[in-house]
Amino acid sequence: MSRDVCNTSKSLDSESVDISDVEKEVTNVILSGKDEIEPIENEENIWINDPDNADVDDDLENLNIANFFHRVDSDQIIYQKKKRKLKLVGKYVMGDLLGEGSYGKVKDMLDSETLCRRAVKILKQRKLRRIPNGEQNVEREIKLLRKLKHKNLINLVDELYNHEKQKMYLIMEFCVGSLQGMLESTPNNKFPQYQAHGYFIQLIDGLEYLHSMRVVHKDIKPGNLLLTLDGELKITDLGVAETIDLFAKDDTCYIGQGSPAFQPPEIANGLESFPGFKVDIWSSGVTLYNITTGLYPFEGGTIFRLFETIGKGEFTIPDEIDEPLRSLIVGMLQKEPEIRFNLRQIRQHSWFSRRPPYSSPPVPIPPLREDRFHKMTVLPYLVDHYYNDPNDNSNDVQFLTEHELNELERSKADAEYSNGNAHSSSGRRHKSRNKKNVSCISVKNFPGCKQS
Prior knowledge:
Blueprint: H1 3-10, H2 19-32, H3 55-61, E1 77-81, E2 88-89, E3 92-100, E4 104-111, E5 117-124, H4 125-129, H5 134-147, E6 156-162, E7 167-173, E8 177-178, H6 179-184, H7 193-212, E9 215-216, E10 225-227, E11 233-235, E12 242-243, E13 252-253, H8 265-268, E14 274-275, H9 276-293, H10 303-312, H11 325-332, H12 343-347, H13 350-353, H14 379-386, E15 399-401, H15 402-418, H16 422-429, E16 438-443
Antiparallel strand pairs: 1-15, 1-16, 2-3, 3-4, 4-5, 5-7, 6-7, 8-10, 9-12, 10-11, 13-14
C-alpha cells in the first residue's frame, strides 16, 4: 500500500478535523503522491468508530428510509406499446410468435416471392447442446423431411442458417393448431366420433406412407398431429423417428423413445428388441382412445408406476364407447405385438370403413390470441413499414397508464362475453394482467411525488 494513502488514516486521530477536510485531503494525497509521509506509529489511532465519533452510528440508526423511496400511484405507471419492426430472413418476412417448445420457437412467416404463408421453427445451437441428443434429433428430422413427401406429413419448404448468431431456420407449411390444443379447449377433452373418425383416417394414411418408407415415428400423439387451414392433418416431430435399414430382415428396433404415456408394453417392460411398426400402432390406439373418451387408457403418478401399469396391459373402456369402435381399440392395444392389429386389419375394420353419424357440433380450432380466424400476423409489419408516414403525428409512440390498460382489457372481455364467447374469455380474464403488449415500463417524472 502507498505511504501516501496510509497517512490519511493518521490524520483522523485529531478531534478537531472536519470530515469534509479529511475527504479533500484524501483526494489530494491520492492524486498528487508527492509529499513524503511518515509511517504510522500508533495503530490505535486508525479506528474511526471510537467513543468520540459515536454520533455517526446514531445518525445511521435514525435514518429515514422514506427519503429514498417514493410512492407511485397507478396512474403514473406508463406502458409503451411495442413498436413493430419489419424483419427479413432471406426472402421471408417474419411475423408474430405462434408457439414455443423445448427445442425452439415457431413464428408466422410470409414468402415474399410466392406470397405463401409459412411457419418457421427457430433453433439455437447453444440451446440444442443443453438438450440430451438435441442436435442429433434435429439433424435426423431434417434428413427425413427432405426425402418424405406426403399430404398427411408436414412439409419442409426451406432451410436457412445464420452462422454468426448460430441459428437455424426451418421453414415449413403453415398449420393453425394441434389436436392437443383442440382437446384442451373443450370441456370434456374429446371429439365427437365422426370428427375423430376423420382425423384417424388421415393419421393411418400418413402412418402407412411412413412405414412404406421404412420409417418408424415412435412418438404418435395428439400434440404431434397438426391441422392446416383446410382441416388437413399433418404428422410432425420426427426427431426420435428411426429408419429401418433397407436390407434388414424385419422392422426390429432397439431404442425406445417418445412420450411415456404412449409407449407400448414391450418398451415399458424393458425388452432389448421389439417390432418398430407395432409401436406406432400402439401409440395410434392410445391416441384414438384419448380423442374419443377424453381419458388415457393407462395412468400413473410417476413414470415408474405408469410403465408398471402399461406393462400389465390391462385397461378399461368407458361404457359410452360402443361397438365397433370398442373392438378396434381393443385390437390396437393388445399387449403382445404378434396379435396386435396391423395397418391392413385397421383399414378393413368396420368402424374405419364407415363414418359414424353426426351427433354434436364439431370442436373448432381454438383462437390464437383472441383471433378465431388466425389472421396473418405479417401484414401489420408490412403496413407499418411501407405505408406509415414517419412525419405523421398519429403514428407517434402511444403511452397507456395502468388504469387505462385495465379498462381496455375489461371492456374487451365484456364484449366477448356478450357475444357468446364466455367460455373462451372467462379463462383469460384473470390472466389478462400478465399479457400486456408492451416493450418497456417507465414512471412519469412528476415533481410532486408523495413520500410514503
